[in-house]
Amino acid sequence: MAKKKAAKKPAKKKSTAKRKPNAAFMKPMNPSASLSAVIGGNAMPRTEVTKKIWAYIKRNNLQDKKNRRMINADDKLKPVFGGKSQVSMFEMTKLVNKHLK
Length: 101
Description:
- By secondary structure, this protein is mainly alpha-helical.
- It has a single domain (about 25-95), classed as SWIB/MDM2 domain (MDM2).
- The protein is about 35% helix and about 5% strand.
- It is built from 4 helices and 2 strands.
- Strands 1-2 form a two-stranded antiparallel ribbon.
- About 15% of the residues are buried.
């Protein structure tokens, strides 16, 4: 009994078209008063809100030293985080979205 070799599949071609950004992410959102204290009061897309929050976290050294996935809240971030003193970076986006209209 001879073994048959499996035929190699041709490699898939990558499309050359650029990805279009999702319109829902690019829609300007208005931040709540507590979130405005951190990122400013102008309407901006969710992606920009996330960038500004991360810039604030890095600038104020709010990432936990041992577990970098955890964010320590300061006085400005505590109301945004629902009164919690520490949240994970994944939970942070969920909590921030509650402050966008």
